[in-house]
Specification:
Number of domains: 2
Distance between the termini: 61 Å
Bound molecules: zinc ion
Mean pLDDT: 90
Radius of gyration: 22 Å
Structural class: alpha+beta
Oligomer: single chain
CATH superfamily of the largest domain: Hsp33 domain
Strand content: 25-35%
Helix content: 25-40%
Largest sheet: 6 strands, antiparallel
Low-confidence stretches: 287-296
CATH architecture of the largest domain: 3-Layer(bab) Sandwich
Shape: elongated
């Protein structure tokens, strides 16, 4: 079996109900993310669900770049970050301090944390960011509020993590559809059907089987699967730009006894080494950068 069978994104429509949906499942790609650190189980669970959500949300938008979800300073969780690119590469990490309780409750943190969803459209150079207060322990509920508030799109989200996999299933009312076009309670009906799915079904059952099991009376139209895989966008150029941004003094202070600065990507463990000559180049090329625009 190829990875494709287990790391996929499926778009679908429920034609009778006027609803579109996305279903994702991550297996090997999630293992890659998970094994980067010795995550406490409650944090791994949260990271897996966030990673599944980041892939889920790329399903219904046309863009070239990456969509990321980030939570900072949420009690013992310093950072939770998950990203999926438009070509289906996922990466993610979490940083924490101290003990993580099995019943991890982000909303209890003071000050109240925010969840940020960022769409970086590399083709157009545009960046869009939406913020949601973390006021519920259920991530899926936060995402539903985000779509309802920022996009005015009625949305239902289910997320699951367990047994070495994570998964997500999302329904959205088709935009631009007038309420009178729908049979009055189609949206409520499909919402109830979605809620009847168990986390195990999301993690284990083949997508065709699951969607027909849940929505067989709603006219399921399933699009071809897109593969998802682990992938990192780090590069030597980006690390050089980071060294440049911290400044010559700090970069030189990081030189080790063997005369190298070593930078390890936290997402993929790739090591980048710069010696004195490389650093010279980093800062010399910096002199060619255009001057900052003057303020008026
Ligand atoms: Zn990397």
């Amino acid at each position: 079996m190829s990875d494709f069978a287990n790391d996929f994104l499926h778009r679908f429509e429920l034609e009778r109900a006027g609803v579109r949906g996305v279903f994702v499942r991550l297996n090997e790609s999630w293992q890659h993310v998970r094994e980067r650190a010795d995550y406490p189980s409650a944090l791994a669970d949260l990271l897996g669900r966030t990673l599944a959500a980041s892939a889920l949300f790329t399903g219904n938008i046309k863009f070239e770049g990456a969509l990321s979800i980030q939570i900072k300073h949420a009690g013992p969780v310093n950072l939770l970050f998950a990203e999926c690119s438009s070509d289906g590469r996922v990466r993610g990490l979490a940083r924490w301090q101290g003990e993580i309780a099995d019943a991890l409750r982000l909303p209890d943190a003071q000050p109240a944390p925010l969840l940020a969803i960022t769409i970086d459209n590399r083709a157009s150079g545009q960046r869009y960011q939406g913020l949601v207060p973390v006021e519920d322990t259920r991530l899926a509920v936060l995402f539903e509020r985000y779509f309802e508030r920022s996009e005015q799109l009625p949305t239902r989200v289910l997320l699951a993590c367990g047994g070495g996999r994570c998964a997500g299933l999302m329904l959205q009312r088709l935009p631009g559809r007038a309420p009178e076009d729908d049979d009055a309670d189609a949206w409520n009906r499909v919402g109830h059907l979605l809620a009847s799915a168990s986390e195990n079904e999301l993690l284990e059952v083949a997508p065709e089987t699951l969607l027909y099991r849940l929505f067989h009376e709603e006219g399921v139209r399933l699009h071809a699967a897109r593969p998802l895989s682990f992938g990192c966008s780090c590069s030597r150029e980006r690390v050089a730009a980071m060294l440049h941004s911290i400044g010559r003094a700090e970069a030189e202070a990081a030189l080790r006894d063997d005369g190298h600065v070593e930078v390890t990507c936290e997402f993929c463990n790739t090591q980048y080494r710069f010696d004195r000559v490389d650093l010279e180049q980093v800062f010399r090329s910096g002199q060619d950068l255009p001057a900052a625009p003057t303020q008026h």
